[in-house]
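Q: Give me the 3D complex with zinc ion.
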Amino acid sequence: MNLVVLGAPGSGKGTQAAILSQRFDIKHVSSGDLLRDSVAREDELGKEIEGIIATGKLVPDILVLRLVREAILEEGGGKWDGWILDGYPRTAEQAEALEEVLSSARVVIDAVIFLDVDSDEVVTRLSSRRICSSCQSVYNTLNHPPKHEGKCDKCGGELVQRSDDQPETIRRRLKVYNEETVPVLDFYELRYDVYRVDGSKPIADITDEIAGLVGL
Ligand SMILES: [Zn+2]
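A: Here is the predicted complex, encoded as structure tokens.
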């Protein structure tokens, strides 16, 4: 089963991809993790990516696609029953480039999941996020608060809000996301089964709904 999961920042797509991966033995291919892992490996590509990130630029599509391609086409010794792609593609151009890679490898996408969440809900969710300034543990003042306000449960470090999680920044990111994603959905709707799932429901309900829709 090969799946693509789309959704705005804060829609919970990474969470769902991780749960589905564990439950159904499908490989979680997260573009963010691939970039971080590549940098950590310190190989030639990793060093190139690190240099780009250090200058504050976006990693070029071609490099991200190279990592995604390797992760998707890697056999993994029969460990996985397919993959779930998270964080890529973000634009119609990326979707087209991915399509070329997949079709030349005779690999198909079985379904595309779009986690639909209301912008106000995303702003509430993300602006409630707090990160430990020392061990990077993630908390949420709404549904996963620390035992003592402002302090990390694990290390006692100070909890801070990332500048990315300020309401104004979130609204700007959502606007960009929506403008880029509508064409991606259009692209996939012409080719594959696209399922829209209400991302405001409880996490476990969303997982069950996705599993039922795609037939896992
Ligand atoms: Zn901590």
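A quick observation: The beta strands are 2-7, 27-30, 83-86, 111-116, 129-132, 138-140, 159-160, 194-198.
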